[in-house]
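Action item from last week, closing it out:
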Amino acid sequence: MSARPFPFGVAPFGRAPVPAPPQPAAPILSEAFGTRPLAGAAAGFVLAALPPGLVLWAQDRLSRAEFGAPFLPGMGRDLLRLDLTRPADVLSALEDGLQSRALAAVVGEIHGPAPALSFTASRRLALRAEAAGLPCWLIRHAARPEPSAARMRWRLAPLPSVPDPDDPQAPGEPRWLAELFRARGRPPSTWVVRHDRAADRLDFSAPPRDRELAEPRDAPGRRMA
């Protein structure tokens, strides 16, 4: 039996309709917040969500000092890395990148509260991303969500990886607990997300508690009353 017996949009047992999976690679401005310091969940999720092609990846100084710079040979993506100083420099680089036809996406890492990232600045980024048809991601380190024009805003936490099929003791495909806490035109939702490396896509499924509720009552180990 499928681990997801109810199609997306169908309400099991009279519950609220299940939202359709989001599209993290949509050509919009999105924000990613990690829920655990130094876990790297936000950056890993964004990296897995990027489309094929050259990606501009810009960091401010504090992001680079606290979380390290992307290791280009091991990223699995074609990245154009920019080591910058201030959040304002990162925002300027993203705006410039959104005007390039050579890029498939742009990503910026910003550490802490950033006065330069005002609602007006985020709205400008959002409009430019949509006009260019490119995904634009902001990874926010050590920051709380503030007013933003980002179309999707995520909180990411790491989960144990899927077991490796060739070696159960080795880490397999990465997984995250992804909370989409704000999105234009859709309700908040929480997902378990797995990166299918072979297909290079993100697979979304309901958190375990929801799957357990959806299991048939005559499953092995249970009896009907």
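Closing note: The helical segments are 41-49, 61-67, 87-97, 119-132, 208-214.
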